[in-house]
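Input (Glutaminase):
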Amino acid sequence: MIDYQAILNTINSQAATSSDRGDVASYIPELSKIDKNKFGIHLINAEKLEFSSGDFQEVFSIQSISKVLSLSLAFSLIGDELWSRVDVEPSGDPFNHLSLLELENGIPRNPLINAGAIVVADVLLSNLKNPKEDFLNYVRKITNDTSINFDLTITDSEKKTGFRNIAAANLLKSYNNLQNDVDTVLDFYFHQCAIQMNCQQLTKAFFMFMNGGKCMQEQTYLTTSQIKRINALMLTCGFYDEAGEFAFEVGLPGKSGVGGGIVALLPNKFCVATWSPGLNKKGNSKLGMEALEKLTTATGQSIF
Ligand code: DON
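Output:
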């Protein structure tokens, strides 16, 4: 039996002594106020046993982690039709780059870079009655937690400085790859990124990707094949131009956000979330990545 609790405790105490914690994201002004000394980790295994250490119950802005959740809802609603609007190839580019979008005629490389997630947001707007409310309810349902909410201060903060996303949405619109108007799509996208959750809630939200599609409440929204595809996208695209490094060091499908969160999972074994607000140069949590490398090394568990 692997002693997850002992491993998480060691990871947490090592994180506490780390002097190089990376830099907190500042292009969304509200995020720059977060204390970079925070560190939390939570793991849930396939038997629903939970292990945790540090600030695992403190909520933070999930940011790009929400892209996997919006993708899963859009995929469950329109199926493979989605892939005519967004591709499934890693970009090798930072999350907010636009150059490939123009070269490839308005079809984003994948749904986990900003441009791809903006297309997914457009799909949700066209297919949900009350998009923001319905999306939030979906997240609450799969997590089995009604306390999850948007942090509207973060939404407003990003709206004021989201110039690259505004550019991306306009470029997508010029290629007819948005059905709704640019402002409505961006408003939805900025809300979804501003969902706040803690590490414990995140592992529960992602439980279904670890558990062949069955969520915490035993409900199924996606087929096993759709879950396989989403996990493949997390592995190849979840960390942008650091996806190779994450696979190399950690060896799990996962997703990061500029709020400092990372969720990763080993199918049929466990789902783990870390939070440390300081980011490395590629925009992924510095200590989060190091913690997950230690976890897969100490347990000997990864997909490889
Ligand atoms: O659109 C943005 O730039 C942010 N709302 C999300 C970016 C993000 O989290 C990138 N992740 N590492």
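The mean pLDDT is 97.
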